[in-house]
């Protein structure tokens, strides 16, 4: 690792996209299609790095979040209000549902360790996330999330190695793109669970807090180059573990709990415990970042203070956590909700990405505006996301 490197806001992004939704989506991808869709995660990581670099640059250079930049710089009233309504709706509806899934997933992880699924777990875990956010310390949140990301890395990668994957199929799936029959929605979901729209708001705002000088962009980029691939490695490990445990066998999977239980005959009790710990870390990390990202997004787009101890900021994340606890406590089956939320995320991504590309080409960026190469790469990501989104809509219409 290069001298002077330290984990930073990009670790928050990795903590945000490696949640129970990722565990469920990646497990279903591996169980249903083996290693064949690993290439989609490679694309997802590259796409995430392209977009999150722009988000971090926007935050460091302008000292604004993406929401604040949209509110201040979009002059056309209809377009500005359309953007505000879209962001508010996406944050309140999307992140509230995600929070329910996050707390459910974290509860499943704890249940895997203690041996029972207690009804009080979502309340306790929601309270833990709220307690950390209430402290209002960015440094504390960053350290906690770094620890959780490292825990996920150790548990999921160790589990992957314990199940002894088919290395030939692994590298073929990683390097040779293919679309097995019926896999389009799964590809959309894998992209949607990695390239998450609200992470653009989270990364811009947190980078502005971490670094105040444009000269510090190199630190932001080094953070990005390590943290995002580390998150991608976790996703790859989960897909491959599910492929080894389920693909081509007379077994069915409905969620991460099934994956955890199925690992015992393959790799013993250690794998089951590691998967439970990984699921707990994934759920708790996302239970912190989803409300945090919501508060950053709404504060910026509505012109409220982004102070972590400010009342509007706190009311936003309190609302998201409360709704999430209610959803998790009702014990609604999480897999279907999380799955379709990931697909919806993939459909929303192109719109938010276009706002980001526009912001990074605005005069407010000065000499740090996008180069033509950065614009080409970003637009390729947007076009691919649009194409995949259109195919998912077509597949859904055929099902109806």
Automatic annotation (TrEMBL):
The keyword Transmembrane helix applies. Keywords: Membrane, Symport, Transmembrane, Transmembrane helix, Transport. The chain crosses the membrane at residues 35-56, 77-98, 118-137, 144-163, 183-203, 224-250, 270-299, 311-332, 338-360, 376-397. GO terms for molecular function: cadmium ion transmembrane transporter activity; manganese ion transmembrane transporter activity; symporter activity. It is found in: Membrane. This is Manganese transporter. InterPro entries: NRAMP_fam (IPR001046). It is a multi-pass membrane protein. GO terms for biological process: iron ion transmembrane transport. Pfam families: Nramp. The keyword DNA damage does not apply. GO terms for cellular component: plasma membrane.
């Amino acid at each position: 690792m290069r001298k002077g490197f330290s984990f930073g806001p990009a670790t928050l992004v990795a903590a945000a996209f490696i949640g129970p939704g990722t565990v469920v989506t990646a497990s279903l991808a591996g169980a249903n299609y083996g290693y064949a869709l690993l290439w989609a995660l490679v694309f997802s990581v590259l796409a995430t790095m392209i977009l999150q670099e722009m988000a971090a640059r926007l935050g460091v250079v302008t000292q604004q979040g993406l929401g604040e930049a949209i509110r201040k710089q979009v002059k056309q009233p209809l377009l500005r209000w359309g953007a505000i309504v879209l962001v508010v709706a996406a944050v309140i509806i999307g992140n509230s549902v995600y929070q329910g899934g996050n707390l459910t997933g974290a509860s499943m992880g704890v249940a895997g360790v203690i041996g029972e699924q207690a009804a009080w777990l979502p309340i306790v875990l929601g309270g833990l996330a709220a307690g950390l956010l209430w402290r209002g310390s960015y440094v504390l949140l960053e350290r906690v999330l770094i620890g959780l990301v490292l825990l996920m890395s150790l548990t999921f990668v160790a589990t992957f190695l314990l199940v002894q994957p088919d290395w030939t199929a692994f590298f073929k799936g990683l390097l040779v793109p293919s679309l097995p029959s019926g896999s389009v929605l799964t590809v959309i979901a894998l992209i949607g669970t990695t390239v998450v729209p609200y992470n653009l708001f989270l990364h811009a705002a947190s980078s502005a807090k971490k670094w105040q000088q444009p000269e510090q962009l190199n630190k932001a980029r080094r953070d990005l180059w390590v943290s995002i691939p580390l998150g991608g490695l976790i996703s790859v490990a989960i897909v491959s573990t599910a492929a080894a445990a389920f693909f081509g066998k007379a077994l069915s999977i409905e969620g991460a709990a099934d994956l955890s239980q199925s690992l015992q005959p393959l790799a013993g009790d250690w794998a089951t415990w590691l998967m439970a710990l990984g699921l707990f870390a994934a759920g708790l990390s996302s239970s912190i970042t989803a409300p945090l990202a919501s508060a950053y997004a709404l504060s910026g787009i509505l012109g409220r203070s982004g102070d972590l101890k400010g009342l509007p900021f706190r009311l936003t994340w309190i609302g998201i956590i409360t709704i999430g606890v209610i959803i998790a406590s009702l014990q609604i089956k999480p897999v279907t909700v999380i799955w379709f939320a990931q697909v919806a995320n993939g459909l929303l991504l192109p719109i938010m990405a276009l706002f980001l590309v526009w912001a990074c080409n605005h005069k407010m960026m000065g000499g740090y505006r996008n180069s033509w190469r950065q614009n080409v790469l970003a637009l390729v990501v947007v076009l691919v996301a649009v194409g995949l989104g259109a195919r998912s809509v077509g597949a859904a219409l055929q099902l109806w």
